[in-house]
């Protein structure tokens, strides 16, 4: 029970002004980020910021391509072909190979004559 009475005293000592003083680094950071050196703000922090920026851009562009590929994939799976020309022919009810379609259309036109 005695140790519970000491808690407020210990808490006040932990946050007292006689504890180790920290140096204010804000003015230095302001000088760094407000310097007119032609760099964008998100790169002015140094090598770590440049690496983080490039990794973010790589993942973003990769994610865009992945989402576009994923949007096309269901159409590829349902029709069995992957080229855009093949998909257009399938939508019109034509054969997958152009030469097969061409010979069939010739045969049909000759039969009609």
UniProtKB/TrEMBL annotation:
Q: Where in the cell is it found?
A: Mitochondrion inner membrane
> Which Pfam families does its entry note?
COX7a
Q: Keywords assigned by UniProt?
A: Membrane, Mitochondrion, Mitochondrion inner membrane, Oxidoreductase, Transit peptide, Transmembrane, Transmembrane helix
Work out whether the entry's keyword set contains Signal: no
Q: Coiled-coil segments, which residues?
A: none
Give the way it sits in the membrane: Single-pass membrane protein
GO molecular function per UniProt: oxidoreductase activity
- Per the similarity annotation, which family is this? Belongs to the cytochrome c oxidase VIIa family.
Q: What is this protein called?
A: Cytochrome c oxidase subunit 7A1, mitochondrial
